[in-house]
Structure formats: C-alpha cells, structure tokens
Amino acid sequence: MIKPIQGYVRADVPLRILETAMHKSASDPSTGFLEISTEDGVLRLAISIDAAKDMQIDLSQLFGEE
Predict the structure, then answer these.
(1) Alpha-carbon distance 6 to 16, whole Å?
(2) Residue 52 lies in a domain
(3) Which of 31, 10, 35 is nearest to 21 (CA)?
(4) Second label for 21, Cα 20 to 30 Å away, from 9, 46, 55, 56?
C-alpha cells in the first residue's frame, strides 16, 4: 500500500470521508462496491464479502470493540 493509485496523487494530508454507502451487485450478492464520498470526490471500490468482513474487523479495532 505504499504505492499511490495510478492517476490519483494527493499530498500526505489525510483525506476526509464525508459519507459512505455499500451497494450489492444484483448478479452476485456476495460482491458489490463501496462508495466513499470525500472532499476530493467520490471513490468507488469493488468489494467482496471477505474484504468487507476484514474491514469490519479493522473498524471494530478502531472503536475498541475487539
């Protein structure tokens, strides 16, 4: 994760998240995309159930709900 996403460069300033939404795929309910609204625009990331579960664990640790 050290390499920046190609085509998107941002200074070492945190990117503030304004809003998030999860959209399931109609053809495959175990996949979908995570939409993250930021001060720079909207990011849409393809995500699977496994990746979402990993993210849930990370967020739980952030909130101290290990």
Answers:
(1) 20
(2) yes
(3) 35
(4) 9
The pLDDT tens digits of the residues spanning 18-63 come to 999 999 999 998 999 999 998 888 989 999 999 999 999 998 998 8
Q: How many structural domains comprise the chain?
A: 1
Could you tell me if residue 5 is inside a domain? no
What pTM did the predictor assign? 0.68
Instruction: Tell me the one-letter amino acid at 52.
Output: A
The answer to whether residues 16 and 26 touch, using CB atoms and an 8 Å cutoff, is no
**Domain-located, residue 42:** yes
Kind and range of the H or E run holding 59 = helix 49-62
CB 29 within 8 A of CB 48: no
